[in-house]
Known about the structure:
- By secondary structure, the chain is of the alpha/beta class.
- Helices cover 42% and strands 13% of the residues.
- It has one domain: Uracil-DNA Glycosylase, subunit E (3-Layer(aba) Sandwich).
- The longest helix is centred in the middle third of the chain and has 18 residues, at 97-114.
Amino acid sequence: MLSTWQEIEEKCLNCTRCRLCEKRHNVVFGVGNKDARILFIGEGPGEQEDLQGEPFVGRAGQLLDKMLYAVDLDRHQNVYITNIVKCRPPMNRDPQEDEQDCCIGYLREQTRLIRPKIIVTLGRIAGMKLIKPDLRITREHGAFIERKGIWMMPMLHPAALLRNPSQMEGAFNDFLILREKIKEICPDVYDR
């Protein structure tokens, strides 16, 4: 177990545990408030994320930022955003199980240090890995479950919303549900 944020990040930035390291431009470790009570977890970086070294900075990230803003959240102030895998899968394909397994330790350490009250998974892959293997994202998004004192909610991935705008209303409703849960269990999030 690594003891500091700096140790975890340094080890991750130099990681060569799986084949995803071979073509990466940047390791995409995460962004946000390291004391956040809300942790957003996607599946893996895309092209823009790989180039810039920050999660959710492309079109999907712009949409995520708008939805966060609509419920008084901000990627730099009161949430932390990361992914299961820290390097871009080729052609933005889903990260494979062995790649997820190589990277999950970094996510566990990030989670241990952040100690979130709420974890939001973005997309099917993250939801299946972290909430339950048979998650049906189109049916179960927006529903909270509690596990070991942490509230977890799967949400539709912003990239999926860009491909299927008809799901936008339901996704925005998930953010409203999230805001109410924040007010219920960790209202100090809005003081940050």
